[in-house]
Amino acid sequence: MTTSSHSEKDRVVIFDTTLRDGEQSPGATMTHEEKLEVAETLDQMGVDIIEAGFPIASEGDFAAVHEIAQRTKNAVVCGLARAAFKDIDRCAEAIKPAKRGRIHTFISTSPVHMKWKLQMEPDKVYEAVVAQVTRARNYTDDVEWSCEDGTRTEHDFLCRCVEAAIKAGATTINIPDTVGYTTPDEYFALFQMVRERVPNADQARFSVHCHDDLGMAVANSLAGVRGGARQIECTINGIGERAGNAALEEVVMAMKVRSDVLPFWTGIDATRLTRASKLVSAATSFPVQYNKAIVGRNAFAHESGIHQDGMLKHTQTYEIMTPESVGVKQTSLVMGKHSGRHAFMHKLQELGYELAANQLEDAFIRFKALADRKKHVYDEDIEALVDEEIATAQD
Ligand code: KIV
Ligand code: ZN
Predict the structure, then answer these.
(1) Closest atom, ligand 1, to C-alpha of 20
(2) ipTM of the assembly?
(3) pLDDT per residue over 228-256, tens digit each?
(4) What's 173-197 look like in SS3?
(5) In what helix (H) or strand (E) does residue 206 lie, and over which residues does it extend?
(6) At a CB cut-off of 8 Å and minimum separation 6, what does 271 contact?
(7) 307 φ, ψ to 5°?
(8) Ligand 1: distance of its center to the CA of 199 in Å?
(9) What's the N-to-C CA distance of the chain in angstroms?
(10) Which residue from 16, 19, 21, 231 has its CB within 8 A of the most atoms of ligand 1, so it is best to mutate?
(11) Neighbours of ion ligand 2 (CB under 5 A)
(12) Do 194 and 158 form a contact (C-beta atoms < 8 A)?
């Protein structure tokens, strides 16, 4: 959200690709209705650009992009197209109803991709960049160009292609880490280098797009922003090809919580993150890992006695953001074998019990014995053992 302390130059645009790169992850297919619901949620939470699909890929993808383009109120609706006129024409048709539509066209620029995948000489790839961006610009003035496998691309060639794409009319330049190979320092330096060397670099917005093969997608995305990129491509729950993409909820909250060292801001309403995560998980049938940052069910849960004691004294002892800030009702103190007296007493108060000191001690011993045997100790278990303790004391 905009506040007086935010300056426009630090605004980072969020480009969500849950419905395109996310849906490409094996087994994450969504139905048409599910896609519409996810797109509506993304739009409501303040995503700037929704990459709604790959229109040439199938009739279903085309229909989803087309209907999302018709319905979306605020966000730019984007479709993906390879470097082929038929892809771009189909994409243009799909985004036509959008209030604001974007064509995202890409071609590989790394030696390994050009030689083995495309089987094209670099000069031919260069020509394709110019031809495809020019074609896309006939349909919309919002054109994004991506150099697939950008982080393994030779620097001179990368700069030549970026310059040509901007000259042909690309307004966003995405340098993807397609195979999750880069590191934060390297990605930071890459953006600095390209922005310094390409003469018309200031005419385009630069974008990061990171995969998580080495578990660095979020760190790399933030490093790219520090290097001058102002668009992050990401997905809800980090779903995506292979190990996934940078997780939207993580990049957004990193910039909010650590604004001291990451002085950037987005238009995302973070209180909607948990709902969006649940929706995407249900639509894709991909469970969210329990310890997932921000949206995992343990992200605001504490079991150890030391942590529970700290939390009962002050929540900032073990939480760096409030659960409410990401749409979780409250912190949970999970009762288990690591819980201590303080948390146990707190739980009894919550359940409405007032015990004498000796009863409390006996009940605590019983609770510990139970917790050693049982993985989950529910409120009902505690009620049962306290009731038993009270009954024994009355005998
Ligand atoms: O990972 C990648 O390179 C992509 C491109 C299509 C942007 O998803
Ligand atoms: Zn990707």
Answers:
(1) 8
(2) 0.99
(3) 999 999 999 999 999 999 999 999 999 99
(4) EEEEECCCCCCHHHHHHHHHHHHHH
(5) strand 205-210
(6) 324, 325, 326, 327
(7) -70, -40
(8) 25
(9) 62
(10) 21
(11) 21
(12) yes
